[in-house]
Each structure stands twice: as structure tokens, then as C-alpha cells.
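Now for one specimen:
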Amino acid sequence: MREIDISKIFWSKCRTKLLEKFFLEYESWNNDWFHMRWLSRDLDEQINSIKRELDSLTELWILKHKTELKKKIFFINPKFYLIEDFVSIFVKSYNPMEKVKDFFKNKWDLELVIINETLKTKLMTPWKSLLDIFMIWDIDKNEFASFLSETFYGRKIKYAIITTEDFFKRLEFWDKLIKNILTENWNIYLKDTLKIKEKLES
């Protein structure tokens, strides 16, 4: 078994982002292989920084690489003896909330977006919340499904989308499902142009 110096692993923000990407993909059974330019775009890091860290992680025997179609692709070394430990570290420390907030920030067609705070530990603990994300109005469902899959590494995220008209119709009769969604614990209102939270509090 090849020993490594743990102190040399977590060296920079770029390296941490790379390790998170590789080990969370591994944990989701994708076992994906990535090339440098794709990682640079996906992680929003300079290509030179990505190259330097990939080379270092390969030297540490954490990653391996091979060349396909003239591109060097990197993957987790299956003989790296701390794979499960690293998976555990990144699953426990992963918090997708900023990604979720960024995704909804410019979604102007949505009048209400409620997310449940338990989303931040979705990879580690499968909390049984009634609903993870509740939205009013319209969203590109294909784009949203792709975002959820990538951000939560295949975990099932429960969400609902309804029209403004349907929402107020149900609210008028205090529909049980709507009532339970709006009064669930740990709700975070990311968008609320309808001032629903204010109305509930009053």
C-alpha cells in the first residue's frame, strides 16, 4: 500500500473544489472521467490552476489519467486506499445552498420560490421533508432537472410548480397540501413577489 502525506492534499481552494467534484461523483456511482478544460469551466477556475492541481493530485496517487482522442482525462485512482474516507469527508461538508440560490437569482418568471433548509444536508441525511422546493409560475423543467441532478448528485429532490391562479384558488380554501407546504419547518423564501410570507405572518 502506497503511503501519502495527508498534509499535502488540501492545499488550495482549487484543489478542494477538484477533490469535491471527483469524490462526490464517485460517491454517486458515476465514476466520471474529466478533462482539464471541462473542469476549468465547471469549477470556474483558471486552466493553469486546474492543470497544476491535477498534476499534483496525480503525483500523490489520488488521481490517474490516460489519453483519449488526444485529450488527457483524469479519474480517481481505484487503488487509492482512502477513497471511502474522502467520500465521507466531502459528503459531510458539501453544502449546495449557494448553488441553489444562484440558480434562482435571475429566474424572473417565478413569483414564489420556497426551499427547505434541509436541502443543505441532502447528500448526508435523507430528511423526510414534505417538499424540498416549492415554486409559483413557470420554469424551464429540462434546465431545472439538469441543475438538480448535477447539484445533488442524483439524489431525489421533491419539488412542485403551480400557477399563480391555482395557488390563490387553493389558498382561498386553505387547501391542506398548500397549508402544510407553507407552514413547514425550516422554509426559506428565496423569491416572494406575492408577499406570501408577509401575509402568513399577519
In short: The CA atoms of residues 120 and 190 lie 15 Å apart. The chain has two domains: 6-93, 97-201. The longest helix spans residues 13-27.
